[in-house]
Design a protein that fits this description.
This protein has no helices and eleven strands. It is mostly beta strands.
């Protein structure tokens, strides 16, 4: 069992930046593909960015060029640096850990982009 705890959400003005962090429990963190997903009101949860155990990352088109995902295996953390935020980035952001048939979710952190 893996527990994921997100932090770093909040209210930011358009054009601003936020850094989300996810701390994972357990000793197998380096094996997991780690991802950030988001869910806006009335919409389905969607992938924002994902990074494999080998460090390869992919991004949603909406995040490409603005967001960066990075993992720190010794610290069991994964971060999402979000720059040039837009109102449409407003959502609850969830951390995800996946390995074969295992999948774990954090409780989510709210990001609101508004002036």
């Amino acid at each position: 069992q893996v527990q994921l705890v997100e932090s770093g959400g909040g209210l930011v003005q358009p054009g601003g930046s936020l850094r989300l962090s996810c701390a994972a429990s357990g000793s197998r963190f380096s094996l997991y593909t780690m991802g950030w997903y988001r869910q806006a009101p009335g919409k389905q949860r969607e992938l924002v960015a994902r990074i494999t155990s080998g460090g390869n990352s992919i991004y949603a088109d909406s995040a490409l060029g603005r967001f960066t995902i990075a993992r720190d295996n010794p610290k069991n953390t994964v971060a999402l640096q979000m720059n040039s935020l837009k109102p449409e980035d407003t959502a609850v952001y969830y951390c995800n850990a996946a390995y074969w048939t295992e999948q774990y979710w954090g409780q989510g952190t709210q990001v609101t982009v508004s002036s």
